């Protein structure tokens, strides 16, 4: 993964968010969510200031960011497609659905397509276990997704050029 340094504007925004959350009990998760909401990801070069403000080690902050699938360390594509890989979705064809999404979108899991149009993310549990397999596109969940339905859903996301 090639990391691109954050802009001064992004780091200033992180500093504002840190200041707003610093004194909140259990601040780390709400702070990380706020940073990601503002920037689309949690930049690696923001980790030291977050750790310092919360009196945590950089390793502790990094560990939380990398543990939870929701947090991104790089900016995502303009559209984000998530395919559930939890047990219920796997049992109902989730893995094949993820492979189908790779073919349709022209990028691999955990990647952003070269044109920046879309990021494909395998995730573990979208909370639709009784209606699996599940896909989420830009924060909008879809249940009981078949390969044909996936093609319909992804038609608006953008095909590779």
Total helices: the number is 7
CATH homologous superfamily classification of the largest domain:
Glutaredoxin
Tally of DSSP β-strands: 5
Distance between the termini: 23 Å
Radius of gyration from the alpha-carbon trace, in angstroms: 17 Å
Per the CATH scheme, the topology name of the largest domain is Glutaredoxin
The fraction of residues in strands falls at 5-15%
What multimeric state do the chains show?
A: single chain
GO molecular function, one term: metal ion binding
Keywords: 2Fe-2S, Iron, Iron-sulfur, Metal-binding
Catalytic activity: a quinone + NADH + 5 H(+)(in) = a quinol + NAD(+) + 4 H(+)(out)
Protein name: Formate dehydrogenase subunit gamma
Describe this structure as you would to a colleague.
- It is built from 7 helices and 5 strands; from the N terminus they run H-H-H-H-E-H-H-E-E-E-E-H.
- The chain is of the alpha+beta class and 161 residues long.
- Strands 2-3-1-4-5 form a 5-stranded mixed beta sheet, with helices on one face.
- The longest helix has 14 residues.
């Amino acid at each position: 993964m090639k990391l691109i340094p954050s802009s001064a504007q992004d780091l200033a925004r992180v500093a504002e968010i840190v200041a707003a959350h610093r004194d909140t009990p259990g601040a780390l998760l709400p702070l990380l969510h706020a940073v990601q909401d503002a920037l689309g990801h949690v930049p690696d070069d923001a980790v030291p200031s977050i750790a310092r403000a919360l009196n945590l080690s950089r390793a502790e902050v990094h560990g939380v960011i990398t543990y939870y699938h929701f947090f991104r360390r790089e900016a995502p594509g303009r559209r984000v497609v998530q395919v559930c890989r939890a047990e219920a979705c796997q049992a109902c064809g989730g893995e094949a659905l993820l492979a189908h999404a790779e073919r349709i979108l022209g990028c691999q899991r955990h990647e952003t397509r070269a044109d920046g149009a879309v990021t494909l993310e395998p995730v573990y549990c979208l909370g639709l276990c009784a209606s699996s397999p599940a896909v989420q596109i830009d924060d909008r969940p879809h249940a009981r997704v078949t390969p044909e339905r996936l093609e319909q859903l992804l038609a608006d996301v953008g095909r590779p050029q």
